[in-house]
């Protein structure tokens, strides 16, 4: 066994290598921290679920065979009844792709938005611009349709459809009627239509004339998600 020479006659060499610490990129560090926080608050999404209840309401999910995911945030009683979903207990998706596609068509009729993935939806809505600014990264950019909300009213006699469009983007919230939340308190579709007409909703005799219900309206490039 070799021993180091004492009193400066020899030198001791450690078997461990030492590397000079590199400066940490503050942008990457902040982005990593925010990502870790989101993973704690939002665990891995369960793609078998149709409805997920939270502290403020219920979110409905549809899984089209063409890819992506339809999401209806804050579904109310009228939405749940229109979609024939249980209002008090979570349900699971259909494993039949034909049934699932038919359900997605119904979801579009209550204003569901298509996203490339649930994660994309979560990042777009839960990531605050202040967080991006703190991390030195560009703020999230929503597609035009993601800044709007649509309310559909389907008359019980089966004739036509009422459509109410309004902007939900942060800068436009102050322009909304102060009592617009009354619509979420409607107990059936007939009552919803009655309230919608008070806000000058547009009536279409043929649902095919509604651009947002068109087959290609939500199919766009570059992952910009629309209705």
Walk me through the structure.
Helix 1 (26-41) runs antiparallel to helix 5. This protein has 2 domains: 43-141, no CATH class; 142-220, no CATH class. It has 6 helices and 7 strands, in the order H-E-E-E-H-H-E-H-H-E-E-H-E. The longest helix is centred in the N-terminal third of the chain and has 16 residues, at 26-41. 26% of the residues lie in helices and 14% in strands.
Note the main attributes of this structure:
about 230 residues, alpha+beta, 2 domains, 4-stranded antiparallel β-sheet, 6 helices, 7 strands, disordered C terminus
Question: Can you describe this structure in just a few lines?
Answer:
This protein has 227 residues and is of the alpha+beta class. Helices cover 26% and strands 14% of the residues.
Regarding quaternary structure, what we see is single chain
Share in β-strands: 5-15%
What does the radius of gyration come to?
A: 26 Å
Distance between the termini: 75 Å
Number of strands: 7
Order of helices and strands: HEEEHHEHHEEHE
Question: Average pLDDT, to the nearest integer?
Answer: 76
Range of helix content:
25-40%
Ranges with pLDDT <50 over ≥5 residues? Answer: 134-142, 220-227
The biggest sheet, with number of strands, parallel, antiparallel or mixed sense and barrel status, is: 4 strands, antiparallel
Structural class: alpha+beta
With strands numbered from the N-terminus, the spatial order across the biggest sheet is 1-2-3-4
**Based on CA inertia axes, which overall geometry fits?**
globular
Number of domains: 2
Number of helices: 6
